[in-house]
Each structure stands twice: as C-alpha cells, then as structure tokens.
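Discussion board: Methods & Data

I've been asked by a reviewer to show the raw model output for two of the constructs in my manuscript, not just the figures. I'm not sure how much to include, so I'm pasting the format here to get opinions. Each protein appears as its amino acid sequence followed by a line of discrete structure tokens. Is this the kind of thing reviewers expect to see in a supplement, or should I convert it first? Here is construct A:
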Amino acid sequence: MKEIKVFAPATVANVVCGFDVLGFAVNEPGDEVMMRLVDEPGVRLLKITGDEGRLPLDSAKNTVSASVQHYLKHLNRPDIGVEIELHKKMPIGSGLGSSSASTVAGLYAINQLVGNLLTAKELVPFAMKGEELACGYGHADNVAPALMGGFVLVRSYEPLDLIALPTPSNLFAAIVYPEVDVPTKDARQMIKAKVLLKDAVTQWGNVAGLVSGLFLNDMDLVGRSMKDVLIEPTRSILIPGFDTLRTLAMENGAVGFGISGSGPSVFALVKDEETAKKITKLQQKHLAQLNIRSNAYVSSVNAEGPKII
C-alpha cells in the first residue's frame, strides 16, 4: 500500500470531573488525512483545507507532520518519504480535540503504510507530542480515546498507563459548539495551581464514581458523578449562557452535562438519540437569542477510533 486516506474522530476530554485523565471519542465531527509514500526521504505537508489559513504548513510546526516525524525517528527510518494532505472537517479551537484528530489521523496513516508496526495504545506517546506542540502540554485525554476508541482513563502519565473503559449501550453525546473564541492555552492558564483538600476529595470521589458507573452500566451513578468543583467554575465564565445551557440539558433528559475539553463546546450524555437531538436544538435556540452562531453534533460513542476511508 502506497497511499491511504484516514478519518480520525473528535473527542470529549475531561468528561467533567476527569481533568486531563478522562475522555471519549465520538463519530462526528473529525478530520481526514491523505498520505502517500514517495521516494524522496522526509515528511512534507503539501496541503491543508478547511482551516481558513490558520494552521502552519511547516512540517516541523504542524501537529500532523511533526508527530509523523517523531514516529519515523523512533523506527530509525530516515529513508522513508511521505507527503501529507490535511483536510479539516471540524472547527479549530472548539474543545473537541481538533489538533488531536489531525494528529491521530496522520499517525494511524503512517503506521498503516509501514506495516502496522505499533498498536493504537503504543501510538499515543507520539500523538502527545502533537498536543504538546498545539497547546504547550502533552496531555492524552484527547489523543488516547481518538486512537483507541471509546472511553479511556489516563491512570498515570509517568509512566503512561492507559485504561480502556466500557461504554454503556445506547449512550449518546449531544454536543453544541458556540462560535466564540476560547484558546486552549488561555483556558489552561486560568486554572488555579493549588486547590483546597476538600475540593480535591470531592473530585476524586466523582472520578471514581464515573468510572464505576461505566463498569456497572449504571447511568444514574454516571450522572451523579459528572460534577466538577475544580475546573468548570472558572472555565464556564468563558462560555456565554453556560448555566442556561446546563438547565436546558438537565431538564430535558440528560444524564449529565459539562464542558468538552477546554471549551467552548458543551456536551450532554443522553440515553437515546431523539433526546440528544431535542437538547441540541433547544441549546442552539438559546444561543441564537444571544446572537451566537453554533454547530451541533449528535453522536453515539465511537468505539473503533480512526478508520481507513
């Protein structure tokens, strides 16, 4: 195989209480990468579409090409040459893992082209290099679920320890992306460096409860655990109408509600597709009343990760 086209999914990181350690993949939106093997050694990013000129074409500065370079260096294969086209099919800066989806698509593509030498879990450290380039910190709560599919827990970063969690059946994500600017780097800088012990204890209990709820297929427990006393109170200030968006979700059948990643996207976990669609419509109507445009995505949890298209 000399050429491949890959789709990689968006992700919901943190899942409210699991800052930097929890995330899950969705079926839409996502990004696409075209990659081909060529005779001339090196990694070249030839084209980017859908980014309105916001992303660098420099192979060392773009998350897709840079992570592929790290991968080939790990294999000690400087002789391999690849050309890459990145097609952005999801909004940049949405809190849905835009850089993660691009990076994961590229890594999955190169891994396939050279013989599928590493597992999805083994590709995660290379994807983290892309996240470090994108936002200054190589977290895995986007890239791990994007590569592995489903819900993933990052138990430890040093050493990296990833746990695939079960996904309850008939679980849907109702996602709304308000078109306001919340850069990931800025959102991270708002977070307090120190927290009160009582708040930390509350957060630990909620993370444990959420993981337990997934294993037990207990959606009531999942919902009770989707509370964040550390990060959300600060970050929600950046999202217009956040409290009303939460009320609309919870009063219309959502299991839980929160910020996706660093925002501004918000998401609700819902037990059926029709309820998810109803919630996104109500939330978009509210944002329109605030003169804010928005996009909505209703998706089941993506269990497979990236795929060849």
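Construct B, same format:
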Amino acid sequence: MRRRTLLSLASATALGGALAACGPAVTGKDSDDGSGAESGTGTVRVGHVPSSLFAPLYVADAMGYFEEAGITVELTPLKSGQDGIPMLSNDQLDVMIAGFSAGMFNALDQGLAFKIVGSMGISPGDPENSPTALEVSQELIDDGSVTTVADLEGHKIGVAGGPGATGGYLLAAMLEEGGLTLNDVEVSNLSTPDQEPAIANGSVAAATPSAPFSSAMEEAGVASPLAVPKQGTTGTGVLYSETFVGGELAQGFFTALAKGSQELLSDGTQTDEVYQILADTLGQELEVLKSAPMYSYLPDLAPQPDQLEAMQAVWIEAEQITYTEPIDVAGIVDASFAENSAG
C-alpha cells in the first residue's frame, strides 16, 4: 500500500492558527467563486480535531486514497468541532470531521446550513477494552461511597468541553446505566489531561477520559472504571458544507474516506502500518497508541441518525440546547454518500 508524507502536527497547528486569524481558508483554487469544491483544482479543505478517533481520515490520506481520487486534502486542525461550525457554514471549510455538540444543534436552529454525511468512531461497548470510560475516584470506591453509577448522584464529574460537548453525551449514555441524567450530577468542564489530578485532589469524584489517559489513571491507582458507553454509541462524524454537498468532489472524498475506514480492523487492534500512520500524523508515541483501546468504524461510515436524535434529546433535557421542539434529524442527514461509497 502506498504511503506519502502527511502534514505534521506542528505544521498543521501553525496552519490552523493562521487560518483562524486570517479568515477564509487558503485553498489554492483557481476560480474566484469562493469554493474549492467546484474550482476543479481537486482541493478539499478539511477541518479536524487531531485525534486517533479520526483514524480513517489519516489512513486514507497516507495510503493515497484521496490522491487516487484526484483530491488534494488540506487539513486544518481545530480545537473542537464547535469551532469549525462557523467556518463550515461560511464556506471556509468544505468538510469537518469532529465531535458533535449542543452548539451544533443550536447553530442549525439559528439557520446555519451544513449536512451530516457520515459517522466516525463507534463505541465497542467492551468494559475491558473501551476507549472511553467513566473513571471514579479510587478513594470513593474503596470507602464504599460509590459502588454503582447511581451513587454518583449529586457528585461533580469532569468532562472535556462540559455537558454540551461530545463528552457530555457520552457521560449521559453511561449515567443512564444508573438511572441518572446530566441533571443529576454536576458536570465540570475539565480538559482530559487535567482530569487525573482533579480526581486525585478530590476536586471531582469522577471523569470521562479517553485512552490512554483512562488507563494511566487506573495504573496510578487514582481511579477505576465504573461504566463505559454501550456498543453503538457515537458522538462524532463527518459534516459537509452546503456548497460542498453538491460539488463534484463530494462523493470521491467520501469514498476515499470510507476506504481508509476499511483498512481499520473492527476489534480495535490495528496493523503496524496503521499505528505508524497515526504516530506520524499526530506526533504520538507508537507504543502509547498500541496500548490504547480504539473505537470501531463502519466500513461505509454511514451516519447514525438514531444517535443524533438521542444527543438532541439529552441536550434538550439538560438545557444545553436553546430550543425545546427537536429538529427533524432527517433534514440534516444525507446518507447518500455512504450508500454510494461501495459503488
């Protein structure tokens, strides 16, 4: 399988900072219509949150699948999916691959236009090998204060991005095991690296770190997992701008992305080549990547409207969404690219 040089994380971060500061993304397009999608240059501007969670993107790029489709991918790193929503809606990005949020739904309700066309990482639901877990203070477990998820009622829980972020939805999915909702706990916006010290010093009773931070907590004796998202849970995906949806490169991009997904093994243990691609792209240690559990991916990366409906319901109940009547998910999802990716 062919490999080509990927954008390093350092240079990608510098590019993202420049784009955020200067406005419209630089596409290298020849036309003046404001859209790299229809200029014929083959450039697709992709906003992403640098993470192994979005492995299909990096694998498809490294293995030359975009290049084979006549596409040059221009990666723009984002701090969060919410940061990319205005860029996507204003045609500064063609594609965004990131986590969903309550802010995304609020943007749709306020008239910003984009389509959800695919899924990304899906929880395997394996308590022994989950990339995300509800980690509870070992001290609270040892003294018997918390023995079940239901015992977390009223406690403070650290979540990267807070209750309206992807992590908030994953927390809600895990709290459901104990009959709780986000309203039954106090959610603290806490970055993943800060979650272990916060549990250790008692600032929070629990947190929802991703691997390898979750396993590091356990190895340090700071916390133990009490729950994981059930199989099929997902809070991330692929979004197209309204302009790009009808562009000539939209299907080719998605088909190449799905090919990247098909290179990933469903049990979460990947080939040495995939691990090396992720290490090279993300600047992470190879052994750390190999030891961390990974999400699974659908071979066609089909969007998951049932999960979007569940997210919307969770965030409406938690008052993270500014409206009360749910948006019809069917109107914001376009599954045709996934359906045509095998053709």
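Answer (T.O., handling editor elsewhere):
This is acceptable in a supplement if you add a one-line summary per construct. For B, something like: The chain has 15 helices and ten strands.
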